[in-house]
């Protein structure tokens, strides 16, 4: 055993191995830094995903309100169209009634109302 120890002690260090040892140590440090950065990136990505989920949940109500408002405006548009046609019909009936009155009363306007004492 003593002879093996002596032969190992006499061996000269190989400069290539020393360079490779340095490069392995550098690569190990870089891998550790990259792993740490990946871990931080994963945490940030998860927190961003949580924030996006909360925003999506909060905006769902707003989107539903806008859809309801759009439906209400559509109904109001229909009611407006119906009111427009009712106005046209009422105007036409008023014009026909005024023409009939003018024809049957010799073109005279109706007399003013009389205030009677009570």
What does this entry look like structurally?
- The chain is an all-alpha fold and 118 residues long.
- The protein has one domain.
- 84% of the residues lie in helices and 0% in strands.
- The chain contains two helices and no strands.
- The longest helix has 90 residues, at 15-104.
Strand content: under 5%
**What distance lies between the first and last C-alpha atoms, to the nearest angstrom?**
142 Å
Instruction: Count up the domains.
Output: 1
The helix/strand order is HH
Major sheet description: none
List the uncertain runs: none
What gyration radius follows from the Cα positions, in whole Å? 47 Å
Q: Please, what is the average pLDDT?
A: 87
Structural class determined from secondary elements: mainly alpha
Shape: rod-shaped
Q: How many helical elements?
A: 2
Number of strands: 0
Give the fraction of residues assigned to helices.
over 70%
Summarize the structure.
By secondary structure, the chain is mostly helical. The chain has helices spanning 2-10, 15-104. The chain has one domain.
């Amino acid at each position: 055993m003593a002879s093996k120890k002596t032969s190992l002690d006499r061996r000269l260090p190989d400069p290539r191995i020393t360079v490779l040892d340095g490069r392995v140590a550098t690569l190990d440090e870089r891998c550790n830094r990259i792993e740490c950065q990946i871990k931080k990136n994963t945490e940030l990505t998860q927190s961003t995903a949580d924030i996006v989920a909360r925003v999506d949940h909060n905006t769902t109500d707003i989107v539903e309100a806008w859809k309801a408002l759009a439906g209400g405006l559509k109904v109001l548009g229909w009611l407006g169209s119906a009111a427009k046609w009712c106005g046209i019909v009422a105007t036409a009936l008023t014009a026909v009634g005024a023409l009939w009155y003018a024809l049957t009363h010799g073109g005279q306007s109706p007399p003013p109302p009389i205030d009677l004492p009570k």
